[in-house]
UniProtKB/TrEMBL annotation:
<keyword id="KW-0813">Transport</keyword>
<feature type="region of interest" description="Disordered">
    <location>
        <begin position="243"/>
        <end position="279"/>
    </location>
</feature>
<dbReference type="GO" id="GO:0005524">
    <property type="term" value="F:ATP binding"/>
</dbReference>
<dbReference type="GO" id="GO:0022857">
    <property type="term" value="F:transmembrane transporter activity"/>
</dbReference>
<feature type="compositionally biased region" description="Low complexity">
    <location>
        <begin position="243"/>
        <end position="266"/>
    </location>
</feature>
<dbReference type="GO" id="GO:0005886">
    <property type="term" value="C:plasma membrane"/>
</dbReference>
<dbReference type="InterPro" id="IPR003439">
    <property type="entry name" value="ABC_transporter-like_ATP-bd"/>
</dbReference>
<dbReference type="GO" id="GO:0016887">
    <property type="term" value="F:ATP hydrolysis activity"/>
</dbReference>
<keyword id="KW-0067">ATP-binding</keyword>
<dbReference type="InterPro" id="IPR003593">
    <property type="entry name" value="AAA+_ATPase"/>
</dbReference>
<dbReference type="Pfam" id="PF00005">
    <property type="entry name" value="ABC_tran"/>
</dbReference>
<dbReference type="GO" id="GO:0098796">
    <property type="term" value="C:membrane protein complex"/>
</dbReference>
<keyword id="KW-0547">Nucleotide-binding</keyword>
<dbReference type="InterPro" id="IPR027417">
    <property type="entry name" value="P-loop_NTPase"/>
</dbReference>
<protein>
    <submittedName>
        <fullName>Putative ABC transport system ATP-binding protein</fullName>
    </submittedName>
</protein>
<dbReference type="InterPro" id="IPR017871">
    <property type="entry name" value="ABC_transporter-like_CS"/>
</dbReference>
<dbReference type="InterPro" id="IPR015854">
    <property type="entry name" value="ABC_transpr_LolD-like"/>
</dbReference>
Length: 279
């Protein structure tokens, strides 16, 4: 697997008259191509600070960030801006669309800034809008779209430059829970099918089901990391139960042939895992 985004000992201290705020402390992170990492934490936990550091929108007090092989934290302002333009896509909670532009024009904007030629721009905008299921809404302005549709335009704009890394800060924060789930599912699908490395923050515990990894932040520190939507501890507990339970206690929805259930030997850990995978 190829690491697309890497952070080493990222620390960001804000200095104010009220004292220092350690918004991020010693955060290490690696995100592979095609991997969706969700950063979870309550308000003030440091999610936005971390995402801004990862996306090169803010400079760490100490620590380093790499996008692919390039150390972003070692670049000049201009080179960093270019790296952001070419390799990163951003999605914001407030959508960040320009009201007087159509959906298609909003999506096209990053390509205009990058001076992509018009024919290619047109093709890429159409593709991006198709990927977020908004081909028919191309001429509409943001105000004529629902919140979920506006955020899908935001996502199309973020992926139109074919970024290596997607950074989304509470992309579903302004959406109702059903729309939020749809938007999160879309992000998961794009990341997994297009090999983008994504870091998405949320404070909504229901939105982690598409995640390959979940990182919990508290007071700027990583307090736990779990793989997928099931925490490691839960997986271990499930395996403990599968190992100990007599085979007759296999769940009713099991698709195993009836004959196997009458074996008297308990399943080994590896067998139990293989059975779960087959289901
Ligand atoms: N520019 C800033 N100046 C001073 N303190 C800040 C600044 N940005 C964030 N903070 C503080 O850093 C902490 C983390 O904030 P933030 O990253 O916005 O958290 P979250 O996105 O999880 O709500 C908070 O205590 C916040 O008040
Ligand atoms: Mg925030």
């Amino acid at each position: 697997m190829t690491v697309a985004l890497r952070a080493e000992k990222l620390t960001r201290v804000f200095t104010s008259s009220a004292g220092d705020v350690h918004a991020c402390v010693d955060i290490d992170l690696e995100v592979n191509e095609g991997e969706l990492v969700v950063v979870r934490g309550s308000s003030g936990a440091g999610k936005t600070t971390l995402l801004n550091l990862l996306g090169g929108l803010d400079q760490p007090t100490s620590g380093r960030v790499w996008i692919g092989d390039v150390e972003a934290t070692a670049l000049s302002e201009d080179d960093l801006a270019e790296l952001r333009r070419e390799k990163l896509g951003f999605v914001f909670q407030s959508f960040g669309l320009i009201p007087v532009l159509s959906a298609a024009e909003n999506v096209e904007l990053p390509l205009r800034i990058a001076r992509t030629d018009p024919a290619e721009r047109e093709e890429r905008v159409a593709e991006a809008l198709r990927l977020v299921n908004l081909a028919d809404q191309a001429p509409q302005r943001p105000a004529e779209l629902s919140g979920g549709q506006q955020q899908r335009v935001g996502i199309a704009r973020a992926i139109v430059s074919r970024p290596r890394v997607l950074i989304a800060d509470e992309p579903t924060g302004q959406l109702d829970s059903r729309t939020a789930t749809t938007v999160m599912d879309l992000i998961g699908e794009l990341v997994h099918t297009r090999g983008i490395a994504a870091v998405v923050s949320t404070h909504d515990p229901l939105l982690v089901r598409r995640a390959d990894r979940v990182i919990e932040l508290h007071d700027g520190r990583v307090t736990s990391v779990s793989s997928g939507s099931v925490a490691e501890a839960d997986v271990a507990a499930i395996e403990e139960i599968t190992d100990a339970a007599p085979p007759v206690a296999q769940p009713a929805q099991s698709e195993e042939p009836a004959g196997e259930a009458s074996e008297s030997a308990p399943l080994t850990r590896a067998e139990a895992r293989a059975r779960r995978k087959r289901r």
